[in-house]
Design goal:
The chain has 194 residues and is mainly alpha-helical. It is built from eight helices and two strands. Helix 5 crosses helix 8 and helix 7 runs antiparallel to helix 8. The protein starts with a helix and ends with a helix.
Length: 194
């Protein structure tokens, strides 16, 4: 059985072509525009530099995700969709499909990095339902683009798995931030006593 790294590489190479010069220019313009707006917000003291960095990381991440799931894929002859809820679970566990199980797992971690960045972007604890909603909305936009542009399979399962992954990433980041804040407070209290 292939390792997760081999599977991710295989999916990456199968579904992604190199970005065209036009796509690179469009992404560079979008990134520079985001950087300019965020820098203005930093100078106006509306956000911190760490929030700017987290947001720019999210922009880069989402650019890569949209490129790999929509824009660099070859269009098909017709629109593809599956409206049956949890069809992939039936295939993975009912038909014992290793491929379906890998797709479920990979879709579940796809938006985890975005979820991880959310508490750093907003510089606060993000509620689980907010992270789920964010993941669902990003995934829904990916799925709708895939359907309209005929560049993938529109399915509810992906939206559910992606939303779950975004929530999971956010929970991990919330725990990380809480422990970091706790340790910073504890060390600050220790320093004051000394």
């Amino acid at each position: 059985m292939a390792s997760v790294e081999e599977t991710i590489y295989e999916i990456w190479m199968t579904h992604n072509r190199a970005w065209s010069p036009r796509e690179l220019v469009c992404f560079a313009i979008l990134f520079l525009l985001a950087a300019a707006v965020l820098s203005t917000l930093v100078l106006a003291k509306k956000i911190t530099v760490s929030q700017e960095i987290a947001t720019l990381l999210a922009v880069v991440f989402l650019g890569i995700v949209f490129a790999s799931t929509v824009f660099t894929r070859t269009p098909t002859e017709e629109r593809k969709y599956c409206l049956e809820l949890f069809w992939s679970w039936k295939k993975a566990f009912g038909a014992h499909s290793q491929v379906a199980l890998k797709e479920i797992l990979l879709n579940s971690i796809l938006l985890a990095p975005l979820g991880f960045l959310l508490p750093f972007i907003f510089k606060k604890h993000i509620k689980i339902r907010q992270a789920l909603l964010c993941g669902f909305l990003v995934s829904a936009s990916i799925e709708c683009c895939q359907l309209v542009m005929r560049r993938g399979l529109f399915e509810w399962d992906d939206m559910i798995h992606n939303a779950f992954g975004c929530m999971l990433g956010c929970v991990i980041a919330n725990l990380f931030r809480q422990s970091h804040i706790f340790l910073s407070t504890m060390f600050a209290a220790t320093d004051r006593r000394a």
